[in-house]
Amino acid sequence: MTAVLEASRLGKRYRRTWALRDCSLAIPEGRVVALVGPNGAGKTTLLHLAVGLLAPTAGEVRIFGAPPADRAEVLARVGFLAQDKPLYQGFTVAEMLRYGAQLNPGWDQALAGRWLERFQLPPARRVGHLSGGQRTQLALVLALAKRPRLLLLDEPMADLDPLVRHDLTRLLMETVAAEGLTVVFSSHVVAELATVCDYLVLLAVGRVQLAGDTEALLAGHKLLVGPRRDPPTAGPHQIVEASHTQRQTTLLVRAAGPVHDPAWAVHEVGLEQLVLAYMRHPDATVLPRPALAAVPHDTKREVSA
Amino acid sequence: MTWVAWRQQRPAILAALALLAVAGPILVVSGWQVTSFARDSGLAACVAAGGDCQVLAEALTSHYGAMLESVSALGALLPIALGLLVGGPLLAREFEQGTHRLAWTQSVTRGRWLAARLAMAAGVLVAVAGVAAVLLTWWWGRFDQLRVSSRAALEQGSLVPVATALLAFAIATAAGALTRRVVPALATGLVAVLVVALALNLAAQSWLAPRPLPITYPAGQPSPRVGLDDQVVDSGYRDRAGRDLSARAVDRLCPGTAGQAVDRCLAASGIQRVDRYQPAGRAWQVALAQSILYLVVAALFLVLAWWRTLRPD
Q: Which residues from A are below 8 Å from B113, CB to CB?
């Protein structure tokens, strides 16, 4: 597994507050990664560190195995969409594309033209006269047409209506599938990413709380519903969140194996449900551990919960 | 990158040209007025004949004195305004609108990007300021021809406006890199340019320019070098024993507002006036020294802007 984006003990401090602290993660190639977390969790800081817009206070970040120093060949392989979708107000759409063509040797004008048509962006229109959604679309075309191997998108869907959002997601996924590039989306809305991402990184106040393959994460968590049990116990399974009604207890657990206790009705967990549970409980942490990952799934481990 | 730099510079260039379009006609029209006044009053003919034209020259300066002052102030401020207009927004607008995040994540290094932007802006500014310098030289030439202004003033029209514009540009660019906002960059840039230019003028005069020559003559009399196009750097009084006197001390010795009585008193007391001056032939040296100093300091401010921009946050 080659990591496209790797952070080790990465930290960034603004004056006296740490926006990101002790952040370690490795994002494998060819994945669609959801970078989620509440507002102020450090998502933007992490992305800015990854493209070299910020310099780390502690630790290091590597893209394609090297620090994102100010080097043309590294810059050419990374597409970045900043949160405020910066574009030159006085430029026309066509001039923005010419800008991209001049500053990127790998620029694909045909691709840019196709996207422009699909988004129905008028080439002669000034950027300042575009709607918020159109600006996002144009900024995305700029990031894609340079043909990056890694695409970092900071809150790309925030100001799009659901229809465009759906359309954009689909187009993006087609491109990802066709070109095998790695995409990192950041968002604080989990629902918009649930259908497309296959890797999840959850940031809580400045550190990584949850990271891993989406399917593995979902398979590793269960929702247990049974008679009220307060305080809650779940044997070897780590409880992420417990809630009680008068008669019932519902537990979201990180399962250490099959759940055998007949008292529990075992349900699958949805991604949004999982993320929200972790967001509500910033102390609970799941990070990929090489030792665990090496253990085959069918290994018998007797668990009696 | 050339097209990008040009396209991004376009609004500032248009603003600079608009400024020139306003200032240019003012200079040309007032220059013509002076020329025709000199022709009609006979001053031009008198100067051409090489006679004593003191009275006619005074008539011109009394008629056009206010205009002369305001237009020469315009001449001094025009290059500063051009430099601020081009330099102020150069980096500040990028930071203000967040577009530096777009620019710095294309496939071009920050250093190359900045070099291209600075080169384009400075190049265009030199061209525009050059036009302004030609206009100013022509305008001061009207007065120099008629021997009513010093040669030094004429020299202020050639190289100095271009160097001044570049100094203002460099300071405003650095202010933009530091404040990251257009309006504060322009405001701090303006104040800094005025302070720096004033300090540099003093420095150029006292260290770089050749030593001014002294001339001593009886106080209350016209200088023997009148009409020779000198630039008087400073002047003072000296008593019979050769000691320097302050203007106030002279006032105490010979009270009175002005006029012949004061002149007679000064002559009777043996008070001498000492002017230190740069002869007309040195005017270009003084202007060159000033310009070189401006350019060196401009380079220092560009280094500051470069360092601040290339250093990641």
A: 103
Is the confidence at residue A285, as pLDDT, over 60? yes
This prediction has a pTM of: 0.85
Give A-chain residues touching B313 at CB under 8 angstroms: 53-55
Could you tell me whether strands A58-63 and A3-14 are parallel, antiparallel, or unpaired per DSSP bridges? antiparallel
Task: Determine whether the interchain pair A86/B8 forms a contact, defined as Cβ–Cβ distance below 8 Å.
Answer: no
Q: Which amino acid is at B16?
A: A
Q: How confident is the model at residue A292 (pLDDT cuts 50, 70, 90)?
A: very low
Among candidates B100, B112, B312 on the partner chain, residue whose Cβ is nearest the Cβ of A54: B312
Q: How far is A220 from chain B (nearest CA, A)?
A: 38
* Residue B222 · residue B116 · CB < 8 Å: no
Across chain B, what does the average pLDDT equal?
A: 86
Separation of alpha carbons B160 and B79, rounded Å: 9
Residue B236, SS3?
strand
Instruction: Tell whether B4 is within 8 A of chain A (Cβ).
Output: yes
Q: Which residues contact A191 (CB under 8 A, 6 or more apart)?
A: A272
Instruction: For residue A184, give how far its alpha carbon lies from the nearest alpha carbon of chain B (Å).
Output: 16
Q: Give backbone dihedrals phi and psi of A63, rounded to 5 degrees, phi first.
A: -120, 135
Chain B partners within 8 Å of A100 (Cβ):
106
Is pLDDT at A294 greater than 60 in this prediction?
A: no
For residue B154, name the pLDDT band (cuts at 50, 70, 90).
low
- How many other C-beta atoms can be found within 10 angstroms of the C-beta atom of residue B122? 21
Please give the average per-residue pLDDT across A109-115, as a whole number. Answer: 91
pLDDT of the residue at A130:
93
Q: Which of B99, B101, B105 is the closest to A75 by Cβ?
A: B105
Q: ipTM of the assembly?
A: 0.86
Which member of A78, A86, A104 has the closest CB to residue B101? A86
Annotate B13-54 with DSSP letters as a single string. HHHHHHHHHHHHHHHHHHHHHHHHHHHHHTHHHHHHHT---H
Q: Cα separation of B84 and B188, whole Å?
A: 10
A132 CA to chain B: closest CA distance, Å? 15
Q: What angle do CA A196, A197, A199 make, to 5 degrees?
A: 165
- Decide if B153 contacts B143 (C-beta within 8 A): yes
Helix (H, G, I), strand (E, B) or coil at A23: strand
Q: A with B: how many residue pairs have Cβ under 8 Å apart?
A: 77
Token duo for residue A132? 């918020």
Interface test with chain B among A13, A49, A75, A85, by most B beta carbons within 10 Å: A75
Average pLDDT, stretch B104-128?
94
